[in-house]
Amino acid sequence: MKNFQRFSIYLTLMFSAFAFVAKAEEVDNIITINTAAKIGFEQLPKVKVDIKVKKTRELYVALQDKQTWRNIKTTRKRIKKSGNYHFDFNIDNLKPGNYRLNAYITPRGKDWNSRIGEQKGVDFIVVDQAQFVEKIQMATEDKIKGISYPKTIADDAEYKLDIQFDITEPRDLIIKLLNKNGWKEAGVLSFPVKEPGNISLPIDKMVTNFPAGDYAWMTYLSETGSKQPLSNKRGAHFSLTNVH
User: Which UniProt keywords apply (predicted)?
Assistant: First the structure.
């Protein structure tokens, strides 16, 4: 009987803990807040906030001087549904220095004393120049570094085509879909790229749009506005199986 009682107590505690976690997950909250790491003193901080809410809430974003920890200004926006919100934080005469943006949410019409969930913050720097433009580190060679795609596609689900590249100046990234039966071109895409990096393309409905067979994605870099290869070529081979 004692063992049964202990087991009953254990179950009660376990389900109580589960109920608490479930309830905690339902609480409205700010998931993330972001802004540019550096701006010039004539530029406005651009706020990006990802919020989860089940009803209308007030979003407060406060600008804080990190040297004195003084709140400089607070702005409020009414949020009616979950999502990503982007806006400029309007502020005049922001001097060079270190700052922080703090965000929190409250019930409609309420303030800090009624805040919901945790406050989230992000730091940034105002540099001693009117406009801060981040320098792009270009490569010394135009090059396709890698390409990847699943080896077999058997449905219309979304799959990612990932390409990594280096460029010496702005280029066009050319992507061709080739049918390996005669190496016929089945499609071509062109994307302007302004700095070295990568691109991840979501591609779906391949089974609907193309017949079964063996294919390859082939990619290279060209001068802007041209289709002529300027770099090496890289390919990703795959089979398309129309199974219905």
Answer: Signal
Tell me the domains of the chain and their CATH numbers: 28-127 (2.60.40.2550), 143-240 (2.60.40.2550)
- Residue 243 has a pLDDT of 63
Closest by CA to 69, choosing from 129, 121, 32, is 121
pLDDT digits 0-9 by tens, 63-121: 999 999 999 999 999 999 999 999 999 998 899 999 999 999 999 999 999 999 999 99
Q: What are phi and psi of 108, to 5 degrees?
A: -55, 125
List, edge to edge, every strand of the sheet that includes 29-34. Answer: 29-34, 46-52, 83-88
60 touches 74 (CB < 8 A): yes
Mention every residue, 6+ apart, whose C-beta is less than 8 A from residue 221. Answer: 142, 143, 144, 165, 167, 171, 172, 173, 174, 193, 229, 230, 231
User: How far, in Å, are 43, 112, 149, 227 from residue 159 at the CA level?
Assistant: 39, 44, 8, 25
List strand residue ranges (DSSP E) for 112-182, in order: 116-127, 143-148, 152-153, 159-166, 171-179
Q: What is the DSSP letter of 99?
A: E
Per-residue burial over 60-86, b if 16 or more Cβ lie within 10 Å, else e, is: bbbbbeeeeeeeeeebeeebeeeeeee
- Single out the residue of 188, 183, 177 nearest to residue 153, CA to CA: 177
Residue 163: half-sphere exposure toward Cβ, Cα within 13 Å: 27
Residue partners of 37: CB distance under 8 A and separation at least 6: 124, 125
Is the distance from CB of 191 to CB of 175 less than 8 angstroms?
A: yes
